[in-house]
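From the methods appendix. Each design record in this collection lists the tokenized structure first, followed by the designed amino acid sequence. Records were kept in a plain field format so they could be parsed without special tools. The example shown here is representative of the layout used throughout.

RECORD:
FOLD TOKENS (231 positions):
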């Protein structure tokens, strides 16, 4: 009788352990990416028509990244135990509606893509590099009553983006990744606006690059710093 009881208890323990392991696998958090060229990789973007910087057939003059497993976001998802949701990244995109040479870049902007991120638990926003490089107008700090004209300047666009993300994705954790080559006024503006919306800003450091973009070493450094911040 005692032996049967022990076996029954053992079976129960095994059953609940297996059920718990299954539950753990099912509740892995899903990460979505909203980014620019730093977060692209051929055939891994949604929508697939988004402009790409990192390709399967690598131009060694531009980058030594030749496998999706070397991208910062793939390493974060894999090593952090997450699931990959939508990666809506677009090479050359700005957060605001102003692009390079003062052109209207509203179609590819972060603002225009923020509502197409699926159903994530975490959103990693990696942007403002092109806003900084293109020298877009900073504008004034503004947090309400946005007009379309406001969104052609960086500060209102940044605030509008975070506000809209928080409205569209309630209970989703937002993190903003700030490149280590941003102009001082852009970086300080990002920090001010992130603080306003209580969004953690991950200020990256010492990112190795090739042709202005993270190489394998740089991707690893980004992944390490992001994992440290979000775990």
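DESIGN:
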């Amino acid at each position: 009788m005692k032996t049967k009881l022990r076996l029954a208890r053992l079976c129960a323990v095994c059953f609940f352990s297996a059920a718990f392991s299954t539950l753990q696998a099912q509740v892995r958090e899903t990460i979505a990416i909203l980014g620019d060229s730093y977060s692209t990789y051929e055939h891994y973007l949604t929508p697939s028509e988004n402009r790409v910087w990192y390709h399967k057939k690598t131009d060694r003059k531009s980058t030594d990244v030749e496998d999706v497993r070397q991208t910062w976001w793939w390493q974060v998802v894999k090593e952090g135990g997450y699931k990959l949701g939508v990666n809506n990244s677009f090479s050359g995109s700005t957060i605001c509606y102003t692009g390079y040479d003062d052109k209207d870049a509203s179609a590819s902007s972060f603002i225009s893509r923020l509502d197409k991120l699926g159903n994530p638990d975490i959103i990693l926003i990696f942007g403002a590099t092109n806003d900084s490089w293109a020298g877009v107008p900073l504008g004034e700090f503004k947090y309400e009553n946005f007009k379309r004209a406001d969104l052609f300047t960086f500060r209102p666009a940044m605030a509008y983006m975070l506000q809209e993300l928080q409205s569209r994705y309630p209970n989703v954790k937002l993190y903003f990744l700030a490149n280590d080559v941003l102009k001082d006024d852009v970086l300080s503006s990002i920090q001010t606006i992130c603080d306003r919306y209580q969004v953690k800003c991950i200020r990256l450091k010492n990112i190795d690059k090739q042709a202005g973009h993270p190489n394998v070493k740089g991707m690893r450094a980004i992944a390490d710093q992001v994992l440290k911040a979000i775990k």
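APPENDIX NOTE: The two ends are 48 Å apart (CA to CA).
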